[in-house]
Amino acid sequence: MPQFESHFFSSLIFWEILSFAILLFVLYKYAFPGILGMLEEREKKIKDSLDQAERHRSEAERKLKEYEAKLNTAAKEAEGILAAAKERAQRLMEENEQRMTTEAERIKGDATREIDQERRKAIQDIRAQTTELALMVAEKVVLRSLNEADHRKFADEALEALSKSYQR
Amino acid sequence: MEESPLHSFELHDWIPISLGGLDVSINKAVMIMWIVVSLVTVLMVIAGSARKLVPGKLQNMAEIMVDFIRGIIMDTMGKEGMRFFPLIATLFLFILFSNLIGLIPGSYTVTSQIIVTAVFSCLVYGLSLVMGFFLHGVKFFGILVPPGTPGWLLPLMVPIELISQLARPISLAVRLFANMTAGHVILGVLFGLSISGGLLIGWLPFAFTIAMNGLEVGIAFIQAYIFTVLTCVYLGDAFHLHGHDEHAH
Fold first, then answer.
1. CA distances from B64 to A127, A129, B47, B80 (A)
2. Which among A139, A167, B182, B201 could bridge B197 via Cys, Cβ 3.0 to 4.6 Å?
3. Which domain holds residue B138?
4. Using an 8 Å Cβ cutoff, are A119 and A109 in contact?
5. What is the pLDDT of residues A39-74, one digit of tens each?
6. Interface residue B119 vs chain A (CB under 8 A)
7. Cα(A82)–Cα(B134) distance, rounded to whole angstroms?
8. Looking at this predicted complex, what is its ipTM?
9. Distance from CA of A51 to the nearest CA of B (A)
10. How far apart are CA A158 and CA A134, in angstroms?
11. With contact defined as beta carbons under 8 Å apart, do B202 and B195 qualify?
């Protein structure tokens, strides 16, 4: 076999070692650091990206929860406001009603008092007139001669008339 | 046209050079070595300087190869094996491109020279020995005693292990050489048949030549891979010494 021809061994060994050494040196110096560095960089980049994505996801979730909570709070607040407004309206209404009632009461009271006063005045007038009338009656009775029985009868009649008019 | 299938392995001095009595003449194999070196250099240096996060074709290819070798080293030697990465990767690329360029008709397969593969295997095995004794001292002789061997078996086991150890560089060198040689011999024979067969029958061996060439591309990769893996295994053995270190931790 031509491969066992030892004539070429020395030159093959020499050039092989030399070219291998050169290749090793060149690759070691200029190629491998770049490629290995690139691989590591990419690995790191991918890992970082995944981490970042994970971070973003959790942050988004957190934000969502936050907003939900905020929304809840807002809804509760709105409810509170509504309830307060309702209550206020109710109170105002009641207040109004009360005021009206009081006013009406007052007017009624005034009217009653006035009526009362008028009545009292009327009674007083009546009494005065009655007295006058009684006096007139008495005068007439006195002017006519009467007997005891007549006296009594007239007096009774007058009194009755008096009391009737008073009652009215 | 009678041509020996071994004709393609013949070398001739092109430029006779003598370096202090040592014959270092330039021949075809040496030229191809240079082509391999320059091709690998151009490819890897360009790819290494591209440094794009989204790699182009060339960068991607170089990164796949580098990552592949890194994976082999990590699997066989672990993280501390990465200090041998430049050596192992250069070895892989040199052998792979030698194998592949050899498949181009008219070129030469450097790795079909037994002396070339022997130099590599001696380099690897010598390195594993040096490293083993450097790391473990005299205890590195323990590599001749498999773990769990009873004392009375030692006279038997030590010679067997010694032979298996010595067979390592030889098998490493011969495997690559023989595979490359055999592939090219087959290609040569088939091609010779298709030439001598003429148009009428010659197309059949020619078709086989093409198919074999495709197969040889696969073999070129596989042999480069096997050489690299075994390199890692031998270096890893010297590193861990039966995995004692690994289990101790």
1. 134, 137, 11, 21
2. B201
3. 5-248
4. no
5. 888 889 999 999 999 999 999 999 999 999 999 999
6. yes
7. 87
8. 0.87
9. 18
10. 7
11. yes
Query: CA neighbours within 13 Å on the CB side: how many for B5?
Result: 14
Q: A 9-38 residues with CB below 8 A of B? A: 9-17, 19-20, 22-24, 26-28, 30-38
Residue B172 to residues B31, B72, B164: CA-CA distances in angstroms? Answer: 24, 17, 12
What 3-state DSSP class applies to B55?
coil
pTM of the model: 0.72
* b/e burial code for range B209-226 (CB count within 10 A of at least 16 → b): beebbeebeebbeebbbb
Phi and psi at B18, nearest 5°, equal -125, 125
Q: What is the pLDDT of residues B171-202, one digit of tens each?
A: 999 999 999 999 999 998 888 888 888 888 88
Number of domains in chain B: 1
- State the pLDDT confidence band at B249, using cuts at 50, 70 and 90: very low
Distances (CA, A) of A7 to A3, A136, B24: 10, 186, 10
B11, B40, B44: residue with CB nearest A2: B11
Question: CA–CA separation, A151 vs A104, rounded Å?
Answer: 54
Task: Kindly report the number of other CB atoms within 10 A of residue B135's CB atom.
Answer: 14
The letter for the amino acid at B124 is V
Q: Whole-number mean pLDDT of chain B? A: 87
* Total count of residues recorded for chain B: 249
Cβ contacts of A151 within 8 Å, gap of 6 or more: A141
3-state secondary structure of B194: helix
Decide: helix, strand or coil at residue A82. helix
Task: Say if CB B11 and CB A2 are below 8 A apart.
Answer: yes
Positive or negative torsion for Cα B59, B60, B64, B67: positive
C-alpha distances out from residue B18 to B15, B26, B129, B203, Å = 10, 10, 33, 46
| DSSP-based three-state secondary structure for B103 | coil
Question: What tokens does B117 get?
Answer: 């593969």
